[in-house]
Amino acid sequence: MKADPRLAVNLAxxxxxxxxxxxxxxxxxxxxxxxxxxxxxxxxxxxxxxxxRPRPGNPPPRxxxxxSGMLNAIGLQNPGVEYFLETISPRLNALGCxxxxxxxxxxxxxxxxxxxxxxxxxxxSGVEVNISCPNVQCGGISFGCDPAVVEELVRQVRxxxxxxxxVKLSPEAGSLTEVARAAERAGADALSLIxxxxxxxxxxxxxxxxLENLTGGLSGPAIRPVAVRAVWEVAGxxxxxxxxxxxxxxxxxxxxFILAGATAVAVGTANFVEPYAVREIKAGLLGYLAKNGLKxxxxxxxxxxx
Amino acid sequence: xxxxxxxxxxxxxxxxxxxxxxxxxxxLQAPLPLQARPGQFVQLRLGPGTDPLLRRPFSIHHEDxxxxxxxxxxxxxxxxxxxxxxxxxxxxxxLLGPFGQGFPYPExxxxxxxxxxxxxxxPLYFLAAQRRREGLPFDFLIGGRxxxxxxxxxxxxEHRLEPSLATEDGSRGFRGTVTALLEHRLLTGPQPGRIHxxxxxxxxxxxxxxxxxxxxxxHVSLExxxxxxxxxxxxxxxxxxxxxxVEYRRVCRDGPVFNGEEVCFES
Lengths: 306, 267
Hints:
The complex is a heterodimer. In chain A, α6 runs parallel beside α7 (251-260). Chain A is α/β, with parallel strands linked by helices. Chain A contains 9 helices and 16 strands. By secondary structure, chain B is α/β, with parallel strands linked by helices. Chain B has 2 domains: 8-99, Translation factors (Elongation Factor Tu (Ef-tu), domain 3); 112-221, Nucleotide-binding domain of ferredoxin-NADP reductase (FNR) module (Rossmann fold), CATH 3.40.50.80. In chain B, 19% of the residues lie in helices and 33% in strands. Chain B contains 5 helices and 16 strands. In chain B, the strands form 3 sheets. In chain B, strands 4-3-7-1-2-6-5 form a 7-stranded antiparallel sheet. A 7-stranded mixed sheet of chain B has the order 11-10-9-8-12-13-16, with helices on both faces. In chain B, strands 14-15 form a two-stranded antiparallel sheet. In chain B, β9, α3 (153-157) and β10 form a beta-alpha-beta unit. Chain B starts with 6 loop residues before the first strand and ends in an 8-residue tail after the last strand. The chains are: A alpha/beta, B alpha/beta. At the A-B interface, β5, β6 and α8 of A face β14 and β15 of B.
């Protein structure tokens, strides 16, 4: 694959051909779309949320469409870190781009244990700590809203995992910038934001919520303005790089995040609609650079004027 | 990789005509044949823009893989399918696929019973056409609420299919549900090698139960809300029995056709 040097970036120690990342939970372990798009087209792929023990996930229905978005309540279905290390991680080098493992847990000790098991694992270029999943009873978002808890959790994970460490934040944290600073203090190398936002759809004929989990995480273009605002606030408050995500479908969308201060951007829901989105976004970014006489996209990071 | 030949197809809509009150038959010309198998599905983009956002899955009703001509039989069930019903001939349709595992193939030579509930007949029609072409014996049972809720006889004649119809009000064919017709058929006729079914969930549960009671393998095509269609998002998961526990499988990638005995209908 011919990579354009104008898009190359090193994100928190992860060398990427471009700043486009496949978002966790939307791209499986990176191979599901391979018949459509070479995984090496991505700058990196964040693989499905992984927990200490296997999780069966939530009963259906797990998804429902909403205006310009969708709710999901998958419930962190995954085969557990042991299976991941035995069966999946040895294959990840075949992706041709760095694989980052999203991790979750019900207790701080579980997060620490998963991170420790991933330390030095083949095929794993980094870890993204999910403290913002809205669809599990314990852990997830309940950890992500309290700066003191975030600091302790990230410190524990940091102590167990030596590689590049990303922390994925929820926009629902009361003080997002305080949570972001707490993660930075505790040793995070980068921050991803945003995760989905909790929502609900009610079937008026059945007079009950559509999702069996009742609530789900809202993703897609509907949340993009919230995400751009969150990136803007956090990028201005920390000195570590920020990965922006939330409803990116096009190069113009990606540029909003970059201009708001994101060093890289992740694409999730858009892949469901257009598996070729990554290719189109890259082409669009290069077109924008050419049109504006820019040598590298990094000139645009945080360049939005006020 | 695993899913070969998956490409985006910019198809030309040749025709979109009403088959019954709320069923529409779309005939599409694909730039390349999909080489789809009965039971597989495609994902249609409903329009430009982000609302509606997700594609909609439709089982393949028929493919002429030499001409690259594809047929989709669509029942209007909501805002998404209403858009599809409003597509006009000459329009370009953005289609991805084929996706999923179809009905088991190659088929054994024994007679198969194809059991369709309402619009669930759509993928079975493709299977029936294939079996007819290959000279494999089958009976095709289709059930609906009333005479008018099912396609006219001329529709089936086109593929020289002669399904046995069942209507709940008895206005056409057997009076009763299609599963009642299935039981009647099993009591009076020879045992089939297997049963293929597609339709509403309670109907599929009943078909699986009937098959289990008589030791006839059943293959049921499930429906689910889908997002990615490639097995990545796990949004379409459905419960299955495995070693006494419940396991979620992906309707889009592991199915949509499953062994009826393994499906956990009771949840």
